User: Which sequence fits this backbone?
């Protein structure tokens, strides 16, 4: 289990990679292109980052309800949801928070490459058991 300091350092690295990738590719590509770019650059930076990573979805009592396939999962502790849309919406935030809660992942990033300006939001669920 990583410490808060280690997780925030990881988030800083991911943010920098995303910003640089957006600066190079700009907006207008499919989400998969940005996903592949994040994995390529993340691994080159020494980050353990998995693409299309299966996570178990749990009910409140712990029963496994199925699988969710995360866009990216970094260092086995950071769920990364990618978007390539004009602007992030409340629905995108709700989607990420729902995934985090159901998969019992405390830390998540919502990244949007589809706008002229790169967007990234960090979320923490302090109580992931309910």
Assistant:
């Amino acid at each position: 289990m990583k410490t808060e300091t280690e997780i925030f350092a990881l988030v800083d690295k991911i943010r920098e990679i995303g910003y640089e990738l957006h600066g190079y590719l700009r907006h207008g590509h499919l989400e998969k292109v940005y996903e592949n770019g994040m994995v390529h650059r993340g691994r080159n930076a020494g980050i353990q980052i998995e693409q299309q990573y299966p996570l178990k979805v749990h009910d409140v009592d712990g029963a496994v309800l199925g699988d969710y396939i995360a866009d990216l999962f970094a260092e086995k502790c950071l769920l990364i949801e990618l978007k390539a849309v004009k602007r992030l919406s409340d629905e995108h935030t709700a989607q990420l928070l729902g995934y985090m809660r159901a998969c019992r992942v405390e830390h998540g990033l919502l990244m949007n490459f589809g706008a002229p300006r790169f967007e990234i939001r960090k979320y923490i669920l302090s109580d992931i058991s309910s």
About this structure: The radius of gyration is 14 Å. The chain has three helices and five strands.
